[in-house]
Design goal:
The chain has helices spanning 6-21, 45-48, 104-107, 119-128, 135-146, 156-169, 173-183, 188-201, 205-213, 221-230, 234-247, 252-262, 281-289, 314-326, 332-341, 350-366, 369-385, 389-400, 408-418, 423-426, 433-440, 451-459, 469-474, 478-493, 497-509, 513-525. The chain is mostly helical. The relative contact order is 0.11. Residues 1-39, 57-67 and 70-95 have low confidence and may be disordered.
Length: 530
């Protein structure tokens, strides 16, 4: 298999997947738990998804099929007031074909990426995949989840939902939205995920419109009332709540929240609602609407995306951007946008980091080499504090390469360029011979010094990948091999040098030479041991 140029095309594809959706580190860095969870392991996406739609009780045999996500620009059309018969087709019964946002022409990954493996094994591996500590490995994981590829035989929607849920757990909401739209269907399980992504990103008008115009969807009471209100039909929303209340089909917690949502006069600042028994994006937004919003810091990472909205206070936006950066879940343009929009309002901590970045950015925009030399070190320290070094490099490496910097900034400039996409161009300037060898691909006469340097050099030696990974690759089980090797690399990041060698050999044999080099450079340049 030859996948030279894989990462260049795939990174371009990731940008395309972001555009499709909208203009919208390590295993030890587990996310904090909401109070309702009582601590313990992080909530997975399936735990906090809104119960926004109900599965149809029965499927008709004739009539209209309403299973595709509607075009938001197409006006709703109805022939009458009666509800039509609905034909519901399960995902696994449909001829799905390869579902993904990144075609092979961009990734180099084959359409049979998954077909040689057992479906349940793949789902288990995806669910158990730890949050990668290195940005390069995180990018590889996201790319695998987004790649257009056929599913193995069996329950075809199982793999699709596992891919979406992992993106949600990683807080890659834009990419999850793109993958859902690529499926082009609105079965309840897919719609719930689309609705929740929209709630957290402030784009709920589209799924709310789908609820109202697609007869194949059966929204629950909270979702129905929220969407009616979003559409301006407050009277219908109130009548709907009263009807459910009269029928006894609404529990006390829902009734209290929805009543306050519909009537601001019922909101009592001195008697706020108790914490919800079960949190979801819909409950999060409803409580926000009544002035009893929940802080996102203790919630699953995806909720931090809600604080990036421009309607949120500047401090909350900045805190959310830093938290997402710590987990590698914020793109360079999004980080730059928040950093540019927020004005330092105090000193210390997050405000000092913001000030350091803004001073550097102003100097760089002015092309003032002396000012950049002075402001780059504190800006870099700020980026290290939030583990945004590679994000920073993606934004500024090219501009830094065009300036003659002095002092500490000159060495930092080389480091930043080595962490960028153009690491090969920076290779000759690297002072460390192993860094220079990895960046240029020339390991001639390189003598590693540390145990990790030895492991890296060994990983690029002409040695076959170890079993069982070599067998997986030979049997056409590329996706499974890559899923299995990522936790091995994580062990290497934690200090197991042999694991580094094994993982690099697998990446090399899989045709991911560019990925292997970027991961090795990040391993040697970034501190991800704590």
């Amino acid at each position: 298999m030859n996948l030279d140029g894989y990462m260049t095309g795939a990174r371009r594809g990731l940008m395309l997947s972001v555009a499709m959706a909208a203009v919208l580190g390590a295993q030890a860095m587990a996310q904090d738990m909401p109070a309702a969870n009582g601590g313990g392991a992080p909530l997975s996406a399936i735990d906090w998804l809104s119960q926004s739609v109900e599965v149809p009780v029965a499927a008709g045999t004739t009539g209209t099929t309403a299973n595709s996500i509607p075009d938001p620009n197409e006006p709703p059309v109805a022939d009458g007031a009666a509800s039509p018969d609905i034909t519901v087709t399960a995902l696994d019964d449909a001829a799905l074909g390869p579902i993904g946002t990144l075609p092979r022409s961009l990734t180099g990954l084959p359409a049979d990426l998954w077909t040689g493996s057992d479906l349940e094994t793949l789902v288990t591996l995806i669910q158990a995949e730890p949050e990668p500590a290195l940005p390069a490995l995180r990018e590889l994981l996201v790319m695998l989840l987004l790649a257009q590829a056929d599913a193995p035989a069996g329950d075809a929607d199982g793999l699709l939902l596992a891919r979406i849920d992992k993106l949600l757990d990683l807080a890659n909401l834009t990419e999850a939205d793109a993958l859902i739209r690529a499926a082009g269907r609105t079965e309840p399980d897919l719609f719930r995920r689309w609705f929740d992504v929209a709630l957290l990103t402030g784009t709920e008008d589209a799924p709310c419109g789908a609820m109202q115009t697609a007869p194949g969807l059966a929204p629950t009471l909270p979702a129905r009332i929220f969407c009616m209100a979003r559409g301006g039909d407050w009277m219908a929303a109130a009548l709907t709540l009263n009807t459910y209340r009269a029928l006894g089909d609404v529990n006390a917690e829902e009734e209290a929240l929805l009543a306050r949502f519909l009537d601001a006069g019922l909101v009592d600042p001195d008697a706020p609602l108790p914490p919800p028994d079960r949190l979801s994006p819909l409950i999060f937004r409803l409580r926000e609407a009544i002035g009893e919003g929940l802080a996102t810091q203790p919630l699953p990472l995806a909720f931090a995306r809600a604080d990036l909205r421009t309607t949120v206070g500047e401090k909350a936006r900045l805190d959310a951007a830093e938290r997402l950066s710590l987990h590698g879940a914020l793109s360079g343009p999004m980080l730059a946008a928040v950093m540019a929009d927020v004005t330092p309002a105090a000193s210390g901590g997050v405000w000092d980091r913001l000030d350091a970045y803004q001073q550097f950015d102003a100097a760089l925009r002015a092309g003032d080499a002396a000012a950049v030399s002075a402001t780059l070190p504190p800006a870099w320290a700020a980026m290290q504090a939030i583990r945004a070094e590679v994000t920073f490099a993606s934004l500024h490496a090219m501009s830094l390469s065009q300036l003659d910097l002095i002092g500490e900034a000159a060495g930092l400039s080389v480091t930043i360029r080595l962490l960028s996409d153009n690491f090969a161009d920076a290779g000759p300037a690297a002072g460390n011979p192993v860094l220079r060898a990895v960046a240029t691909g020339d390991f001639t006469d390189v003598v590693p010094v540390t145990a990790m340097e030895m492991a890296v050099v060994a990983g690029f030696a002409d040695t076959p990948a170890p079993d069982p990974y070599a067998t997986l690759l030979a049997d056409g089980q590329l996706g499974e091999a890559l899923l299995r090797i990522m936790p091995v690399f994580e062990a290497g990041v934690a200090g197991d040098a042999r694991s580094v060698s094994d993982a690099l050999r697998v990446l090399h044999e899989a045709g991911l030479q560019d990925m292997a080099r970027r991961a090795a450079l990040q391993l040697l340049l970034l501190d991800r041991t704590s």
